[in-house]
Amino acid sequence: MAVKTMTKLTLGPIAYHWPADARRDFYARIADEAPVDEVYLGEVICSKRAPFHEADLPATIERLERAGKTVILSTLAEVMLKRERKATEDLAAMEAPEIEINNAAGLFARGKRPHRIGPFMNAYNEATIAWMAGKGATHVCLPAEMPAPAIAAAARNAGALGLGVEVQVYGRASLAVSARCYHARAHGRTKDNCQFVCEEDPDGMPLRTRDDRPILRVNGIQTLSESYIDLLPEAARLVADGVTHLRLTPQTVDMVAVTQVFRDVLDGRMPTGEADSRLAMLSGDAGLSNGFYHGTAGYRRIAAAAPT
Amino acid sequence: MSLAELICPAGTPAALRTAVDAGADAVYCGFQDATNARNFPGLNFTPDELAEAVTYAHTRGTKVLLALNTYPPAGKVDLWRQAADTGARLGVDAFIVADMGVADYIARTYPGIRLHLSVQAAASSPEAIRYYCENFGIKRVVLPRILTIPEIREIRREIPCEIETFIFGNHGLMVEGRCSLTNYLTGQSTNMDGVCSPASDVEYVRDADGSMSSQLAGFTIDRFGPEEKAGYPTICKGRYTAPHRPEGYYAFEEPVSLNLSRLLPELIEAGVHAFKIEGRQRSKSYVRGVVRAFRAAVDDIKAGRDANIADLIALTEGQKQTQGAFETKKWR
């Protein structure tokens, strides 16, 4: 158990366009109540949204740090326009807090100064991770679609280089990004005149198949999984395989309670059976899935092997 | 003036010879495994076939570009390295890469062979492109299909390498190299396995009312009336419902194909060095028709003549076509 308690819980950046006051309330609760060690902040999906919450950023950072959390600023996943290039460059110029880079434009701007590699950087293998480490990467968040054997091999090699290794264990998986805004498209608009309609869907806009089966979620230019990734049953195995950080991504559920379940399981305070049902209850209507980890379709839920 | 090279698809040895004969400046192809992004059954080359193809192409002055443009999962990197070793031994003219580990291996091991940055690397800004140029000696970037021509012109001024753009064929909607939609529904990954909406998971199901559902791994990607022609269930070309769109709509894009023939003169003027025709999965006759038509058009433009654009438009007759992001920002 002593080893397990070394495992850090992190809170990924908010993917959605939550209103500024909702974000303030959210992070106040996280600071005061959530047993997470590290919190990623910043707009990762749409550069148009950033002005709505940038002003609050210094206060949020201060609040979280005062509560003992490590804060990391995440850069945009897609960098194309002038304002996106500028935003990436500005973040890369910062000395503190740490930054997590999600686009090669950020790597270019950062040079060899220390940084984290975000889940959009496609660090799929040991050769790429070694390359990145040689350029100043201190930590890598693996892509959400990686299966267990690849995670183990990547973690072993990254660990040997002294890097932190992070895997998403809760929340919707990012499945695609595009230059086109699908939220705007659904409302007959374009990205340039979107009127921030994505704010209506704080947990993504649900897409259903024409025979009415839930399939995907739209978040501006991003497409997400309908189900939440849930690797709680696999957490011990991830830790044993060398994963040092477990990432929970914010959804519109009680994230304080969700992080508490993960912490309790890691610390051996809650039996996994009880934890699984508690997490399912906290996740409400969302389906839970672990298919990617088990090397099968991502939406699937693979049951844990019966204890022998 | 740009060279305006025509880069043509070679899914099979026969398609490669067809493209070479029809006037390709270069052909691109891959091995029969996960090392390339068109890892489809019945496509691609054995090492022996590639050896013959390189000889055939080089004898006729055509270059061969080898696509190693997927992302090796940890523990399987050797497959990509061996593919690079084989390609180098067979004398390919360039490797098309996306993964940094793969790029680094080739840059160190075969410094004499050109590296092209695949669209799968999703480098869409001058800074991202320069990162790959400075670190791996990339000689050409294949730009994502998300930029307008003025944006391409600006990028051209800020990067030290050549630019290749897609001009014709399938119109990908998602940022390439960042899409796990197929893996989410089928368990096969576009990035790690080179698979996109695989045929092995496709089923067409006739419903009681006579309509047809085209399904991928049991998910209905679209539904067609008895009079409609059922389309292939590519996830990003499907019709879905949303709270504001209960009738069902193309949430991402209609099943259109890209055709930039009208923009060809402007793209050449913007400094694009090479034009890529998509379609390694297409037939020989398709390859022949498309390559011939674009060969004639490019030659006309380079000679200062008006190109016969009508021939190029006719290539997609009966199909919807688009100029996508290249024409206007409103596409976004």
Query: Which parts of chain A are unreliable, with pLDDT below 50 for 5 consecutive residues or more?
Result: none
Distance N to C terminus of chain B: 30 Å
Order of strands, widest sheet of chain B: 1-2-3-4-5-6-7-14
Structural class of chain B: alpha/beta
Q: The CATH topology of the largest domain in chain B, please?
A: TIM Barrel
CATH fold group of chain A: TIM Barrel
Output the structural class of chain A.
Answer: alpha/beta
CATH class of the largest domain in chain B: Alpha Beta
| Net shape of chain A | globular
Quaternary structure of the protein: heterodimer
Major beta sheet, strand line-up of chain A: 1-2-3-4-5-6-7-11
Summary?
Chain A is an alpha/beta fold. Chain A is 35% helix and 21% strand. Chain A has twelve helices and twelve strands.
Task: Chart the SSEs and their pairings.
The complex is a heterodimer of chains A (308) and B (332).
Chain A: H1 2-6, E1 8-11, H2 20-33, E2 38-41, H3 50-54, H4 57-66, E3 70-74, H5 82-92, E4 98-101, H6 104-110, E5 115-117, H7 126-134, E6 137-141, H8 148-160, E7 164-177, H9 182-186, E8 205-208, E9 214-219, E10 222-230, H10 235-240, E11 245-248, H11 255-266, H12 272-282, E12 288-289
Parallel strand pairs in A: 1-2, 1-11, 2-3, 3-4, 4-5, 5-6, 6-7, 7-11, 10-12
Antiparallel strand pairs in A: 7-10, 8-9, 9-10
Helix pairs in contact in A: 2-4, 5-6, 7-8, 11-12
Chain B: E1 5-9, H1 13-21, E2 26-29, H2 47-59, E3 63-68, H3 77-90, E4 94-97, H4 100-109, E5 114-117, H5 126-136, E6 140-142, H6 149-158, E7 162-170, H7 181-186, H8 190-193, E8 202-206, E9 212-216, E10 219-224, E11 239-242, E12 245-250, E13 257-259, H9 264-269, E14 274-277, H10 284-302, H11 309-314, E15 321-322, H12 324-327
Helix pairs in contact in B: 1-2, 1-10, 3-4
